[in-house]
UniProtKB/TrEMBL annotation:
Coiled-coil residues: none
Entry's Gene Ontology molecular function annotations: ATP binding; ATP hydrolysis activity
PANTHER family registered for this protein in UniProt: ARSENICAL PUMP-DRIVING ATPASE ARSENITE-TRANSLOCATING ATPASE (PTHR10803), ATPASE RV3679-RELATED (PTHR10803:SF31)
Organism: Acrocarpospora corrugata
Domain ArsA/GET3 Anion-transporting ATPase-like residues, every copy: 13-168
Name this protein carries in UniProt: ATPase
One Pfam family here: ArsA_ATPase
Length: 326
């Protein structure tokens, strides 16, 4: 297995969150590929039941089991797990009470679903607990089964509540297996081996949610990681000046691009597009300045003209590695 210095040496659990529509799942998948590169073994975990990982890797829906889904650049394997809360409940009953068979009966009766519905915090404990177990798991020889675990986590708006499991189950149990389970999860989630990364676009609402989410995590003493700025266009607004409509119209005619149409009208339309692009790029720069103020490490991921297909995932993984995040 190869090794290299990265910004997150020592971190074994990478939690990825972001406002809906920012490409959170895509970035989590690319980060898993980047972390696995060079011969490492990484587990990519999905917790929301959307089968987003399967869609990103163009696979059939994933079952509730860890299975290999991709080979990383330079060797290395990415495994995936789509966590189902009911199945996680059965694991929990088996682990603490030896009641997996009874749990299946309870599931048929709807008791498990009822329990996690009236106690939503318990659902989060089960899901984060399964992830934490994967982080801590070792082989018989005492080595970690996975070099890193990446969690495609819930959106920024509820990430602190989702991860702050000790507080969430405080009203459910003060002693016993449930409390012990929650404390184990908290010991992983709040440790230096965990980092919660934010995915954002250079737009006002995603950036503000990122800033709010980082502040909320710090208020509950959970580890803030880096910021992945997705879909970055490379245009510098300083390079876009005023457009001379007449000169542009002459250029269109000289190049034979007007096809007999009104060159002046086409030039004006193009000039408007250039001005709108310059304005948008200026807004993006101001949003980037807000992110710079956080002091968090930032990684800029390119806009993929052909979309986030499998080839695009590997392109993003390379961008992540080249900037030192993995």
């Amino acid at each position: 297995m190869s090794s290299r210095d990265t910004d997150w040496d020592g971190v074994r659990l990478h939690v990825v969150t972001g406002k809906g529509g920012t490409g959170k799942t895509t970035v989590a998948a690319a980060l898993a590929l980047a972390l696995a590169a060079g011969g490492r073994k990484v587990l990519l975990v999905e917790v929301e039941g959307r089968q987003g990982i399967a869609q990103v890797f163009d696979l059939p829906p994933l079952p509730y089991e860890e299975r290999k889904i991709a080979v990383a650049p330079g060797g290395g394997d990415v495994f995936a797990l789509a966590i189902d809360p009911e199945e996680a409940m059965l694991d929990y009953l088996d682990m603490f009470y030896g009641l997996k068979r009874m749990g299946k009966t309870l599931t048929k009766m709807g008791v498990v679903d009822f329990a996690t519905t009236i106690a939503p915090g318990m659902r989060d404990v089960l899901v984060t607990g399964k992830t934490s177990e994967a982080v801590r798991r070792k082989t018989k020889a005492g080595r970690r089964v996975y070099d890193a675990v990446v969690m495609d986590a819930p959106p920024t708006g509820r990430i602190a509540r989702f991860l702050n499991v000790t507080q969430e189950v405080a009203g459910l149990a003060r002693v016993g297996p449930v409390k012990a389970h929650a404390d184990m999860v908290r010991s992983v989630m709040g440790s230096p081996e965990t980092a919660v990364h934010f995915v954002t676009l250079l737009e006002e609402m995603p950036v503000q949610e990122t800033l709010d989410g980082m502040a909320e995590l710090r208020s509950v003493k959970l580890p803030v990681g880096g910021i992945f700025v997705n879909m970055v266009r490379s245009t510098d607004p300083a390079l876009i000046g005023e457009v001379d409509h007449a000169e542009l119209a002459l250029g269109l005619k000289a190049a034979g691009l007007t096809d007999g149409k009104d060159a002046t009208a086409i030039a004006e339309a193009l000039a408007r597009e250039v001005a709108e692009h310059a304005s948008r790029t200026g807004l993006e720069r101001r949003e980037l300045e807000e992110l710079v103020k956080t002091g968090a490490r930032r990684y800029e991921l390119p806009f993929l003209a052909d979309g986030a297909d499998l080839a695009g995932l590997y392109e993003l993984a390379e961008a992540i590695r080249s900037q030192g995040a993995a």
